[in-house]
Amino acid sequence: MGASGDEVPLKSFSHKAIQQLVVILAATAILFLSVARLGVPSQFSGYIGSRPKPQAHKPICTQIPAIFPRGNAAAEIDDLLAQVSFLNRSIEWLGGAVRIPCVVLMLSV
Predict the structure, then answer these.
(1) Pure H helices in 10-106
(2) What DSSP state is assigned to residue 61?
């Protein structure tokens, strides 16, 4: 265990590997600190998870004034729905919308 030549030294990182590791860790720390302090550059904002900075609200479409029916519109609609001609026309339209083919079989008894 002393100074004999048959001892195997413990494997360790070389000084060059340790220096490279320190440089990589330092660069990573600088990157994270600068992103935390300055925010993510716009060209990387889609790739790095960051919160967008608040912007002033700018409406895309302007709001138009509300549209209200005329005063007697409900009464006019009720009169239209009560007409027999409207009922007959509605039955014709709906009857033409759905056509189910049927087959009639005659069975002889």
Answers:
(1) 15-38, 73-82, 84-97
(2) S
Residue with tokens 């509605």: 90
Residue with tokens 């709906």: 94
Q: pLDDT tens-digit profile of 29-68? A: 888 887 766 666 665 555 555 555 666 666 777 888 888 7
Instruction: Give the separation between CA 18 and CA 7, rounded to whole angstroms.
Output: 24
d(CA 57, CA 64): 18
DSSP letter string over 74-89?
A: HHHHHHHHH-HHHHHH
Q: What is the dihedral of CA 80, 84, 85, 90, to 10 degrees?
A: 80
Please report how the helices 73-82 and 84-97 are oriented relative to each other, as an axis angle in degrees rounded to 10.
70
Question: Is 16 buried (19+), middle (13-18) or exposed (0-12) by CB count in 10 A?
Answer: exposed
